[in-house]
Design brief:
The complex is a heterotrimer of chains A (156), B (331) and C (663). Chain B is of the alpha/beta class and 331 residues long. Chain B is built from 13 helices and eight strands. The chains are: A alpha/beta (156), B alpha/beta (331), C alpha/beta (663).
Chain lengths: 156, 331, 663
């Protein structure tokens, strides 16, 4: 990795029902998007513990993309609203920690929106590229920048 | 809400003087405040865009830049001329859609110390303001001399509703805004299928035969439907139908007499103004006979009302409006 | 490391291997992930083939593997395949993890180096995760043998009859007063010209009288809870104001009702009905309904003519909506389509020009039971047209409206042409973009209509107008079109224009989808599980779709889908139970502090607070496994199987392994 061509590393969380299937659809339709995102499948965006995001950022990710079903279309009725609440709170916490809140982005994508998933991914990679590397993971043994107790507080 | 930046356009000072005069009479009763853009220039009409895009767009955008500098409490620019409206809206739209064009145009504006950020102004046509800001109810409330019995063909022209960048019109093929205003004035508005057909534009200069045919279609259909006059929102349309009607008659050996007035002239009449104040009489195809119906005190004989639909007839579907179920723009 | 992990990288022919260096990925995994416990890493042409599966099974046995990672396609495709392979070799199926390097890597990226790097990261993530996987047992739930079919059109009727004939009970719910759907409105069906009512009515009667079918018309599904095998459905049975026990369907109430109303539904706005009515003579059931928005009694408080004349006293003005709860194991949605609103294409003049008709209007016009007794006449009700223009693709294949092809319009246009010819002798023009007459005996019908003398103009119609330019156009509708075969503009004056309007998803398809927990495509049609191999199942277990609700289709295809959906349901019923993913949340009571933060989070009310012990408990039968409570627990007392914190955190670490820096 050179400074002139900074390639961000991004962790993406997807829900099993909408956004993971959007990613599948983007694949089936051979839509091209930036290769910087590595996906993790959850059952629902409501499963997203904000600790996951902090862990990803502390382990070398430069950005985290959270994706889920559109509001009102959650497979589990309303759990994506809870993801939205946690997301907004998380952004405040990140700001308090001195991390640009824009490093975390929430994207709604239905199972039919492969094109949207691809476009949003590419756009987010460019946004993170502009922000530059996070460099949280200077020392690999220094996992917890925040204490275990604080992590749980965020989770709540 | 009632304050606007005003872009008159060249024709309002010359060929469409009557449009300007009549517009001035309706501003006060409708509580509209138009502030003219200082040092505005020609919009380039239709020709310049066909020659060189960057200078053409720069010419238009200069007006937008001036307007955005001048804005005091409003971001809406009103143009009464359809060509001016379309050009201003087009420049605003394409500067935003094609950033490279926006940059080049701004580079040109820079020479004059000007700058315009596309999308910051709202470019709208006069009739859009009258229908959607002022409202038909407010117009109706000012009518003291209803145009009852005057059969008018509402002629919107082709440049106003298309392309409809910001989805301003009820329908870009058959917009009803002009119909609604005329109806609010009490006029007997005919269903005019050619309301958005072309008047020939500048074809009168390059290929008059083509323009004559287009004018003939407009006039012939209005006449066929027993319209006493046409009403328009566009200086170009007014000029072509009015000034070239005689030549068209010669060309085809016909004998049409179809006056065409600006809708603001009819508004002025309905609001109680006298024809002289409204520039009526300046038109080449005289509207005297048509207006005799309302100019004099004698109540107009009612048109025989259409025979009642017989029971065996089949019902019509409801008419489509864009705002169906949403906004009650059309009363 | 105690775990012994096998990594299997699939070429998928050239689908993966064409972009990802699969050999490099496998070698890298064997070398670099050895300390994680990877003992073997192989690549193979098609892992999902039986040889590929045998390879895994053999390794599990011979190399005593305890965890498997397959880097191949999306888990939604082959997770099951590899889990079964593991099970066959004696390994718990949930100790298998799929890494998607096809949908997420080779198909979406082009740079081989970068794609290979990403594939390694994805494999690394899966390896880290699989170590934390736990052996799980499948959850088995019983299947209630009752089925709910929503929508009583031909697709729904077919599905209901198939299941009922197999001996299982069906609740058939229909929104309108009668079953029959759009097919009941048609006069003839293409290409055989069978009388639509003649072939449909026997099916309707069969559905109405079948001992295994509970028919609920004038009813709508209000609420759905539960999951495959045991759905609980609340149905609103709207008040008919007619007592079904007493009504004999004699029709006297309808005859005596003084209020005439335009029938927007059955007669497509072209005819009238009364305020108390059965939509058509062959309606099933035969009981009428009261239209309270138009009934004089409901509007003004007097009249009651129907009540006075009813010989059995069946009119009941005090009826109210009833709510009925039914328990079913599976649900089939066959909710049909709406006709595209042709008024939106204002240049065709529908709604402005009287003699422009929609296809559904023409169906009623040509139907012997319709408002004109089958006489094809203009809107004045008496003039027979001398010339008729049929415009195809109205609202379809048009980027201003719907991009898709509505499938039925070409054949419908041909059918109309034939009927106009046969009944009026008028000159008929068909204006088309492309003629699409696929399927059995369809193109033969096209040939027949051509031979009958119907004229075909290829081109998109620009405008239908009554503004005449020439004397021969006076009083006519002029169709202005480009004739792309003749290479010129044409103006064709006709007396009548029929717009072959496209099909659209039901206006409330999205809400209905939400009610049943299934999604819609961007066009608004219900989304099937797989467009080719699973066209009647949905992403939600136990919910099936059939007919036009899934996309535009003709009658034979709708019937086929209705039957297909019922076969899927019967398969479930006969299995008696179904295995569910064991993804569930559970509370470690030792860790639970009783803070109750999780208590309000569950939409399924699966979380209970035990007052006595002051701890929270999760009801496994109600839990759907979303994991929201797991994420919320501040004490980490709730764990979610299949998606535990340990698994996800390990996957994050694996994906971000230091030596995987991207180019």
């Amino acid at each position: 990795m050179t400074d002139t061509t900074f390639e961000p590393t991004i962790i993406g969380f997807t829900c099993n029902w909408c956004s993971y299937r959007a990613a599948d659809l983007a694949g089936t339709a051979r839509m091209k998007y930036a290769p910087n995102v590595r996906l993790i499948r959850l059952m629902c965006s409501g499963r997203l513990d904000p600790t996951f995001v902090l862990r990803a950022l502390s382990q070398g990710a430069d950005g985290v993309m959270i994706t889920g079903c559109h509001p009102g279309e959650c497979h589990y009725i309303e759990q994506n609203y809870k993801a939205l609440r946690r997301y907004l709170l998380l952004k405040r916490v990140l700001k308090g920690m001195g991390i640009e809140p824009e490093r975390v982005k929430l994207v709604w994508a239905s199972a039919a929106e492969g094109a949207k998933f691809a476009a949003e991914t590419t756009a987010f990679v460019e946004e993170i590229r502009k922000l530059g590397p996070l460099h949280w993971r200077k020392k690999s043994d220094q996992f917890s920048v925040i204490s275990e107790a604080e992590q749980k507080e965020v989770a709540a | 809400m009632n304050k606007y930046l005003f872009y008159p356009g060249c024709s309002m000072e010359s060929s469409a003087k009557a449009y300007m005069e009549s517009l001035n009479t309706i501003l006060e009763p409708l509580d509209l405040h138009f502030e003219e853009i200082e040092d505005w220039n020609c919009c380039g009409a239709t020709e310049y865009l066909g020659i060189n895009l960057i200078p053409a767009y720069s010419l238009i955008a200069r007006n937008l830049a001036l307007a955005s500098k001048q804005k005091n409490g409003t971001r809406t620019v009103v143009a009464p001329c359809s060509a001016c409206y379309l050009n201003l809206a087009k420049a605003d739209y394409y500067m935003q859609e094609r950033p490279s064009l926006g940059e080049k145009v701004n580079e040109a504006l820079q020479a004059g110390g000007l700058q315009y950020t596309p999308g910051t102004l709202d470019v709208r046509h006069l009739i859009d303001i009258l229908v959607y800001d002022v409202g038909l109810e407010a117009i109706r409330s000012q009518v003291i001399r209803p145009l009852t019995g005057l059969r008018v063909a509402p002629y919107m022209g082709c440049m106003l509703p298309r392309p409809d960048y910001k989805h301003r019109w009820s329908d870009h093929e058959h917009p009803t805004e002009l119909d609604d205003v005329l109806r609010a004035l009490g006029a007997d508005v005919i269903d005019y299928p050619l309301t958005t057909s072309c008047c020939g534009g500048h074809m009168t200069q390059i290929g008059p035969e083509t323009a004559f045919e287009l004018i003939r279609r407009l006039v012939a259909d209005a006449d066929e439907r027993s319209a006493q006059m046409m009403a328009t929102v566009c200086p170009m349309c007014q000029m072509n139908v009015d000034a070239y009607q005689n030549e068209m008659n010669h060309y085809f050996g016909t004998d049409y007499h179809m006056p065409i007035l600006f809708f603001t002239q009819l508004m002025g009449l309905a609001f109680g103004r006298e024809p002289k104040e409204l520039g009526i009489g300046a038109e080449l195809v005289s509207s005297r006979n048509a207006l005799a119906n309302i100019g004099v005190e004698v109540p107009v004989t009612q048109e025989p009302s259409a025979p009642k639909k017989k029971d065996e007839g089949l019902p019509m579907p409801r008419r489509w409006t864009k705002h169906e179920g949403k906004k009650e723009a059309v009363k | 490391m105690t775990e012994r992990i096998g990594v299997y990288v699939c070429h998928c022919g050239s689908n993966i291997a064409g972009v990802v260096d699969v050999v490099d990925v496998a070698n890298w995994a064997a070398e670099k992930l050895g300390r994680q416990g990877v003992v073997i890493a192989r690549e193979y042409k098609f892992m999902c083939s039986s040889l590929g599966q045998e390879l895994i099974e053999k390794d599990i046995k011979e190399l005593r593997l305890t965890r498997i990672v397959v880097a191949a396609c999306s888990p939604h495709l082959h997770e099951k395949t590899f889990r079964i392979a593991a099970k066959n070799a004696g390994l718990n199926p949930y100790l298998v993890e799929l890494a998607s390097i096809r949908e997420q890597v080779s198909w979406v990226h082009t740079d081989k180096t970068v794609a290979t790097q990403k594939a390694k990261a994805v494999v690394s993530g899966a390896v880290s995760r699989v170590i934390e996987n736990q052996a799980l047992d499948e959850l088995k739930v019983p299947i209630n043998p009752n089925t709910l079919v929503v929508g009583g059109g031909i697709a729904g009727i077919q599905a209901a009859l198939e299941i009922a004939n197999a001996g299982f009970h069906v609740y058939l719910v229909e929104r309108e007063p009668s079953i029959g759907g759009h097919m009941a409105q048609f006069d003839k069906t293409f290409p055989t010209l069978d009388c639509s009512a003649c072939i449909l009515t026997p099916r309707m009667v069969e559905a109405g009288t079948h001992p295994n079918i509970t028919l609920m018309t004038w009813s709508e599904v209000e609420k759905v809870t539960g999951y495959v095998g045991s759905f609980n459905v609340t149905i609103r049975k709207k008040a008919r104001f007619v007592n079904e026990e007493l009504c004999t369907g004699c029709g006297i109430c309808e005859e005596k009702c003084p209020k005439k109303v335009i029938d927007d539904v059955y007669e497509a706005g072209l005819g009238y009905r009364k305020a108390v009515y059965t939509p058509f003579a062959q309606a099933v059931p035969k009981y009428p309904v009261m239209d309270t928005q138009n009934c004089t009694y409901f509007l003004k408080g007097t009249c009651k003519a129907c009540e006075k004349f009813c010989p059995t006293g069946a009119i009941d003005f005090n009826q109210t909506d009833q709510f009925i709860n039914v328990e079913v194991g599976n649900i089939i949605l066959a909710t049909g389509y709406d006709l595209f609103d042709a008024r939106k294409v204002s240049n065709y003049g529908y709604g402005r020009l009287p003699n422009v008709f929609t296809s559904l209007e023409f169906e009623r016009l040509s139907n012997a039971a319709g408002p004109t007794n089958g006489n094809i006449v203009l809107r004045d009700g008496k003039t027979t047209p001398q010339s008729v223009g049929i415009i195809h693709c109205v609202g379809s294949r048009d980027r201003n409206f719907n991009n898709y092809c509505s499938v039925i319009c070409c054949m419908q246009g041909l059918k109309f042409a034939h009927l106009v010819h046969e009944r009026t002798g008028a000159t008929v023009y068909n204006f088309y973009i492309d003629m699409r007459t696929a399927y059995k005996a369809y193109d033969e019908f096209y040939q027949r209509v051509l031979e009958e003398g119907t004229l075909f103009v290829r081109g998109k119609v620009a405008e239908v107008t009554d503004a005449a330019r020439h004397s021969n156009e006076k009083g006519k509708l002029i169709i202005q079109t480009e004739d792309t075969l003749a290479g010129k503009q044409r103006r064709i004056p006709v007396d009548m224009v029929i717009l072959s309007s496209g099909l659209q998803p039901r206006h409330d398809a999205k809400e209905v989808g939400k009610l049943f927990g299934i999604s819609c495509s961007t066009d608004g049609w219900f989304t099937e599980k797989h467009p080719k191999l699973d066209p009647v199942a949905t992403m939600t277990e136990g919910i099936y779709i059939a007919g036009c609700a899934q996309g535009p289709k003709d009658i034979p295809s709708s019937v086929a889908q209705g039957a297909a959906a019922s076969a899927r349901v019967l398969d479930k019923i006969l299995q008696k139970e179904v295995a569910l993913e064991p993804v569930r949340a559970s509370v470690d009571k030792e860790k639970c502090s009783g803070c109750r933060i999780c208590n309000g989070l569950c939409p399924y009310h699966a979380i209970l607070f035990l007052e006595k012990e002051q701890v929270t408990e999760i009801n496994l039968a109600l839990c759907q496994g979303c994991g929201t409570c797991v994420a919320a627990c501040p004490a980490g007392a709730i764990s979610g199987t299949g998606f535990s914190n340990e698994q996800i955190l390990a996957q994050i670490d694996g994906l971000l392994m230091e030596n995987l820096e991207m180019v």
